[in-house]
Fold this sequence. Notes:
The chain is mainly alpha-helical. It has helices at residues 2-12, 36-45, 52-62, 81-90, 106-117, 121-128, 131-136, 161-175, 179-186, 191-204, 211-224, 231-242, 278-285, 309-331, and strands spanning 25-30, 71-76, 95-99, 152-156, 294-297, 303-306. It has 3 domains: 10-93, Dna Ligase, domain 1 (2-Layer Sandwich), CATH 3.30.1490.480; 96-175, no CATH class; 179-290, no CATH class. The strands form 3 sheets. It has a two-stranded antiparallel ribbon with strand order 1-2. Strands 3-4 form a two-stranded antiparallel sheet. A two-stranded antiparallel sheet has the order 5-6. It is elongated, with a radius of gyration of 28 Å.
Amino acid sequence: MNRLVLVGAATLRPAGGAPAPDAPVETVVLPPGSSFAAATDSLVGHGVVTSRRLFAALARLRGDDRKIKAGYYEFKRGENPLVVLRTLAAGAEKTARFTVPEGFTITDIAAAAEARLGLPADSIETAARDPALLREFGVAGPSLEGFLLPETYSVSRLITPRGLIRTMAAQFASAWQPAWDGRAAALGLDRRGLVTLASIVEGEAQVDEDRPLVAAVYLNRLRIGMPLQADPTVQYALQQATGARKPRLLERDYQFPSIFNTYLHPGLPPGPVGAPSVKSIEAVLAPAAVPFLFFVAGLDGKHVFSRNYSEHLRAIARIRAAERANRHRGQTP
């Protein structure tokens, strides 16, 4: 009996091996819940598997007929059956890269997911407000805004909007360090407050060295009851109202009626205004020991910091003069 099994196994061992070097590549999509028979039909239909009978027998012998995983796969026509079975059993599908830059809002993420992954933007935004996901990740608030980690993800091409949001929220939860809660409490912030302030720092700081300085300015303002007057909060309010991000604010924008507008409302806004990086969270937890209350963006992307309003006005005047000088030099032959 054992001899017959061994002979059978040897017979089923695929001959030849690799497909022709110039064999065309076929895309095979196996939806969730696909049976082995349906997967085989698709593989045969694309010319990846040339013998349905031998492929099925080999799968049964290896036990792979019960292990195949849904996914988006790419195989060459006439691929070695063992390679096909191992790939399907491992779920080694062709993934897509999805990059979420630091500071992206849920609206930004939804638009990017629609453009790059083909997922409906409104479904992404709905998933980010899913009460079950909010409970799962312990997020207090109406959405997962600020609690989705900005980074590059390798995701299944069959991922759902809810699956994408859940993946990003899980990455944020994994990156969270338990000690951060205690350090935030020492600053008078709860977790949501920490993430909210970090999201503002993210929106303001253009270079890493500015992050602890910007964080210090806002913490200093909070401590003395001074309005934050943070542009990222106004930009967020406008985006929520119009669906579009406004990179440069006009004077009238600072009067836009929103609870997120920190020019009109003291203290922190009710929630994050984007996805902060770990660097911005750590900057809030370890702010620079400086007395600054103001800052303005310089020509090199770095900020110029000031202790009082008169210093701030002088810094603005110097920067504006430098801008004019640069424009003048640019017009000189």
